[in-house]
Amino acid sequence: MPFSIRRAGLWAGAVLIHVQMPCMAMAQAEIVAKVGRLANLVEQSLANQPEVLAAQAALESTREQLSGSALPLNNPELELEAERTGINSYSIGFSQTLDWHDKQDALQQVVQTRVDVAEHQLQVLKLTKSAELLHAVGGMLTRRRIRHLARERADMLTRFVQLAEKRHKVGDIPLVELELARLSLAEARMEQAGKSALLVETGADFYRLSGIRLPEEIRLPEQLAVSTLSDNEATAIARQHPAVVTAQGNARIARSLILAADRVRKPDPTLGLSAGREDRENLLSLSLSIPMHLRNDFSSEVKAAEAESLQAEHDADRIFRDTLAGLHASHRRFRIFDDAWQAWSSLGRVSLQQRLELLERQWQAGELSSTDYLLQIEQSLETRITAAELRGDRWNAWVEWLSASARLDDWLYRTAKEQ
Q1: Alpha-carbon distances, residue 76 vs 94, 291, 373 (angstroms)
Q2: Does the pLDDT at position 33 exceed 90?
Q3: pLDDT in tens, 208-217
Q4: Where does the pLDDT of residue 251 fall: very low under 50, low under 70, confident under 90, or very high at 90 and above?
Q5: Which residues contact 381 (CB under 8 A, 6 or more apart)?
Q6: Hey, which residues does 283 pair with through a beta bridge?
Q7: For residues 195 and 147, is the Cβ–Cβ distance under 8 A?
Q8: CB atoms within 10 A of CB 173
Q9: Among 19-33, 84-98, 242-256, 344-358, where is mean pLDDT lowest?
Q10: Could you tell me which residues come within 8 angstroms of residue 318 by beta carbon, excluding any fewer than 6 positions away?
Q11: Residue 370: is its pLDDT beyond 80?
Q12: Residue 347 burial (CB < 10 Å; 0-12/13-18/19+)?
């Protein structure tokens, strides 16, 4: 007998696993599909985003400057001279200023660092615009949900007023309760209009960011989770953030400008060679000229570059600190909203729907006055709106976390590739 019970238990467990695995696979496929649509939306929007296109053009400009910086700084000069007097003379000469202190190499290092910084600035801009776009998507869907709830509220109160009018005719409720129901319906319709107007404004904000209208099939994935974050992990993530890397690049540019300013201020010699003829005599001359920085040695430019380098170092430290603080804050914020959402998902949704049905049955049976019914209905619907706002806050916190950790692209496109 125990053997049979054990076999039955194993069989039941196998059936449960067999049922759960397809459900889990379907849920994962749904998540992948939702994230894939978001990834396509972000990619399409960034491809036509004016600020991103301007940053790409700026990057190409910097790359062209890098190509030019590889060329010599000074070109040779040609000089022709002819004189017709009692004695005819003419000459031709060439002169070349020498890059004696290798200024070209110092300037090329500056431009190379600027190219690297421009590339990271483009990454920062794309990350920022992607986060703004996903925030706008969340705002649109939240406003749609709230508008839908406002419409449900108006429809529910419309039905309630119709029933109240019938009950008033037969004397079940007084006129004051009927008028209260009508006032509640008027208020619900005004609120519905306000929610619809907010949705229009949110849609305009989304269009300004993306240049397109939000497709109807876009949905937010429900399963969002972050792991624990240690101080060492947060520090490592913050140091790799494109904004921090950009700030450190600007500090490197400032340091390289010190060397460039020091070399540029040093005088370079100019060599000249000319040949000519004066009457019947051939002439050949060699010249050397060196500027003498006696009245101005241009050291102030070097000191200014040193001060700017120090400023850039402090800016890099500040941006790192801000990034690290934002990383910790976004992580904690998401955990708070996620815990609240999970609690609502497991208890609030079912209990609230059951409460609405129970309230209507109690009112229909005369166990609840119209005033109490309207009050509790209003509270219940406000709870549903608050839940919709909580879902939107959770999504915004998730996007902030992805942006603060620079994992937004990885989450979007890595999940999308799982299709």
Answers
A1: 7, 17, 94
A2: no
A3: 888 888 888 8
A4: very high
A5: 149, 152, 153, 156
A6: 276
A7: yes
A8: 22
A9: 19-33
A10: none
A11: no
A12: exposed
Structure tokens that stand for 227 in this block: 């792991």
Joined together, the tokens standing for residue 152 give 């449900």
Can you tell me whether residue 222 is helix, strand or coil? coil
Contacts of residue 356, Cβ cutoff 8 Å, sequence gap at least 6: 377, 380
Rounded CA separation 313/255 (Å): 9
- Using CA atoms, how far residue 296 sits from 18, 266, 267, 291, 304, in Å, is 86, 11, 12, 11, 15
Q: Please give the share of the chain, as a percent, with pLDDT higher than 70.
A: 90
Give the distance from CA 37 to its chain's centroid.
17
Looking at the DSSP bridge assignments, the partners of residue 284 are 275
Tell me how crowded residue 339 is: count the other CB atoms within 10 A of its CB: 11
94-110 residues labelled b (16+ CB within 10 A) or e (exposed)? ebebeeeeebbebbbbb
Ordered DSSP codes for 131-175: HHHHHHHHHHHHHHHHHHHHHHHHHHHHHHHHHHHHHHHTTSS-H
How distant is the alpha carbon of residue 102 from its chain centre? 41
82 is written with which tokens?
């002819």
The pairing of beta strand 77-84 with beta strand 270-278: unpaired
pLDDT at 5: 38
Helix axes 231-239, 299-343, angle to 10 degrees: 130
Instruction: List the structure tokens of 256.
Output: 């390289």
Assign 162 a pLDDT band (cuts: 50, 70, 90). confident
Instruction: Give the C-alpha distances (Å, rounded to integers) separating 312 from 68, 239, 254, 324.
Output: 26, 16, 7, 18
DSSP 8-state symbol, 274: E
Distance, in Å, from the CA atom of 284 to the CA atom of 275, rounded to the nearest integer, reads 4
Measure the CA–CA gap between 309 and 315, rounded to whole angstroms.
Answer: 10
**Residues in the chain, total:** 419
10 Å Cβ neighbour count for 225?
Answer: 9
Torsion of CA 84, 85, 88, 89, to 10 degrees: -70
Name which of 190, 191, 186, 213 is nearest 202 in CA terms.
213
